[in-house]
Design goal:
Elements (H helix, E strand, L loop, with lengths): L5 E7 L7 H10 L26 E7 L6 H16 L48
Parallel strand pairs: 1-2
């Protein structure tokens, strides 16, 4: 995992989450020392500062549906294009945990991202649909 440039997890959606066997693998691989406990500091190094800093990751989640051959072909092409740009695209600039935006290390400061909710509040620079 440490030597990998990218992590791609592909799995079927199972009861609104990943299958238990994948969850177990993540619990073991991301165990103390890599994702939690990095540098012996508990959860101090998260959100871009931890053991996976600089790595790329992408999820491919499948769900059940009746699907036509045309839709399968379109999905394959979209996935091919997405993977082709995996190392060229700018990463999502999530706010670092230790950069001052989370004074207690867990909760976003009240003066940061005022009026924003959800995931977008934790992105340092808002990107538009074109990716600018």
């Amino acid at each position: 995992m440490v030597a990998a440039d990218a992590l791609i997890l592909q799995f079927p959606l199972w009861w609104f989450g990943m299958p238990a066997i994948l969850k177990g693998w993540i619990d073991r691989v991301f165990a103390y020392g890599l994702a939690y406990g990095y540098r012996g500091e508990g959860n101090r190094y998260r959100y871009g500062d931890g053991g996976l800093s600089g790595k790329r990751a992408i999820l491919s989640v499948t769900v059940g549906d009746r699907i036509t051959a045309d839709r399968i072909a379109a999905a394959k092409e979209a996935w091919r294009i997405r993977l082709k740009g995996l190392f060229e695209e700018e990463p999502i600039p999530f706010r670092p945990q230790n950069g001052g935006d989370y004074p207690d290390g867990h909760v976003l400061a009240s003066h940061i991202a005022m009026g924003e909710t959800g995931l977008t509040a934790h992105v340092a620079k808002t990107r538009n649909a074109a990716g600018d």
